[in-house]
Design goal:
Mercuric resistance operon regulatory protein, DNA-binding, DNA-bd_dom_put_sf, two-stranded antiparallel sheet, 3% strand, 2 domains, DNA-binding transcription factor activity, mainly alpha, 141 residues
């Protein structure tokens, strides 16, 4: 005779430990609808399933890659409706990659500007400071 066991339930703390997602963030994802609300114990504690764990891991990995909440919502919408198109996911990924490259270019410009400002500074105890002077310069000057 085989014994039927219920799927493993994960309390919110276990979900947090398994995925590295803060407990408050998990609650936030529920509130905004990225995570479906789990069943509750008679005492009111959340009890997540393995499917919740997989979804939260997906969200975490997506956030680690810099995808926005809106982009993740779109991806999950395709998954939930079983309308995943590899082509559409690829398009979204390329758009995201372009945005990341734009940010990297902006950070490089920022790095160059800060290096230039720091190089002008004598680091002395005099009241004149080229960094402060540069920050007070009129834009476009």
């Amino acid at each position: 005779m085989s014994r039927v066991t219920s799927p493993r339930a994960y309390p919110i703390g276990a979900m947090s430990r398994e995925t590295g997602v803060n407990i408050e963030t998990i609650r936030y994802y529920e509130k905004i609808g990225l995570m479906p609300r789990p069943d509750r114990t008679p005492g009111g504690n959340r009890q997540y399933t393995h499917d919740h764990l997989k979804r939260l891991s997906f969200i975490r990995k997506s956030r680690d890659l810099g995808f926005s909440i809106a982009e993740i919502r779109s991806l999950l919408g395709m998954v939930d409706q079983q309308e995943v198109s590899c082509g559409e996911v690829h398009r979204m990924t390329l758009l995201h990659l372009a945005a990341v490259r734009d940010k990297i270019a902006a950070l490089r410009r920022l790095e160059t500007a800060l290096e230039s400002m720091a190089a002008k500074c004598a680091r002395g105890d005099v009241p004149e400071c080229p960094v402060i002077d540069t920050l007070f310069e009129k834009a476009g000057a």
